[in-house]
Amino acid sequence: MNERQDVAGSRRGGLTVADLVVRYPGATAPAVDGVSLDVAPGSVVALLGPSGCGKSSLLRAVAGLEPLAAGSVCWDGTSVADVPVHRRGFGLMFQDGQLFAHRTVGGNVAYGLPARSGTRGRVAELLELVGLAGYEDRGIATLSGGERQRVALARALAPAPRLLLLDEPLSALDRALRERLAVDLRAALVATGTTAVFVTHDQDEAFAVADRVAVMSAGRLLQVDAPAELWVRPATREVASFLGYEAFVPLDSPAAAPLRDALGVPPSGATLALAEGAFVVGRSGVAKGVVRGVSSRRGRSEVRVDVDGIGVVTALGPVGGRWSAGDVVELGVEPDALAVLDA
Ligand code: ADP
Given this model, what pLDDT does residue 1 score? Predict the structure, then answer.
């Protein structure tokens, strides 16, 4: 029998959250407002959304740290509502790893393991998994921020939790480190087959870590999809805006015509969404625009261009390009930075 069959009342593996509501005393609106979400065994789901949209509240409710005002949280089809936090078999990891400062690295990792022989070997294995082989005897105070979060991850993985809940575990680190750790974090979760829910407000991080990304806004779930699917087919303008799409034009408008051709889609009632970089300055032109300003990021030029019928968008240009406000530039199109919305 197919365990994933979505028949009401059938047993489903992994985490199932249904119609969940979290409400804080005195608050006018619920922090989580009727969220339903499945996390299949061995998969990683990122909760992505702006600060205050209810990501942590949802995670904490799953952990058992917040009461449910309505709805259910099930593991393998059985409600965990009456199971206390420490009996759920769920692991937790936070922004500050909450390590024991007076223990060594090895002591911190071993804390999550049952006392028995073979602990040393298992600690060494976990440290290797997070890229800290040989760190057993180091003091926590001697570690960088990134190394501390690696130790926190090793400790969280040590008891092999059936579900790992990660609340912004990388957000205290600088961007370059965050990018590297996101990749390593995913590798460690995949290598251990860990089922995980990962909270972040950073799209790049969500896309790097998760098999599926759940976009939240104001307590609600807007869309759940694989990263590539989400990027190519954002369900609504709100999701698209959050992902970084910056301009929206009706597909049947004259301004959309050259872009439509690039995508090979016919005019319709749908909307075309343009992300940063949908236009490229200096490539054979499909449109023209007037330069409003120029900046540089990671060596590339970002040219703010006012395109007739579309508005001001961020076009990309080659390193060292020179443009001034008022210049008229030819614009090529980058199809990967375009999406078609149904409405
Ligand atoms: P996120 O994790 O997406 O930043 P949170 O889940 O932390 O969002 O918060 C969602 C909403 O609930 C916010 O409006 C926040 O102010 C509110 N909130 C969070 N924690 C509490 C609390 N302990 N008491 C009252 N309100 C809270």
Answer: 38
